[in-house]
Structure prediction request, 258 residues.
Amino acid sequence: MHELPLVFFTVFGQSAAGLYLFAYLSKRIGWSSSEQLRQSNILAFVLMLIALVIGSLHVGQPLRFFNMLLGVGRSPMSNEALLSGIFVAFGAGIVFFTLFVKNAMLREVCNVGAIIFGLAFVWSIPQVYNIETVANWFTVFTTLQMWMTLFVGGGALAILMGAQRLGSMAFLLGAIIIFATRAAYISFLGETGPVISAEQAGFWAFQLVVIAIMLFVFPALLYRGRNSAIVLSICVLAVILAELSGRVAFYNLWQIAM
Prediction:
């Protein structure tokens, strides 16, 4: 629980990147409307902005964020900081050219830019944590869980914002991969840090139970037409809380290899 700013920063950021991606693709395919895309982009920007503000608490003083940029190209953390800033900048551009200076072409450019740099940002996060000296993190499972938040969190948000078909597919894919790989992940941690990993059982159990429940709840709500904003919002909030729980467990695994 000692890295809560990073817990929110990574989960909110990855979920926002997923929302940008799935909402845009859904609109392009013709499965959602322009208004739904507009609302999705605004929510994604607000979510990423909150993530950046909370994440800045990790460095103590917000201005230290700019010091992190000094190692761009050689430092994974600097790359992450730069990409998160560009990601937010493109998100701000979407909002600006949607609400204030309406320009469809520039809005489209910013939308594509937000997706590209959102994906780059998600890619950069596990690069920070794949450290040989932290055996519990030095694994492909670190990268996998970061990307699955994009699918699970982003997919759930996309369902809420109207991109229901593509959002459901993304959520289902992410959930299947999480369940299919969790046993191997726990087995790996049983070798690198059995005691500390056992202490995270409650966090992982909450994550898996919520995701399992939503695998049934989301299709039921959408199939029966009971997709009210309140009910879906509660479901999406539960999914985000589940991903936050899983991320708390991840950061709690920090342990220097002897």
In short: The chain has a mean pLDDT of 92.
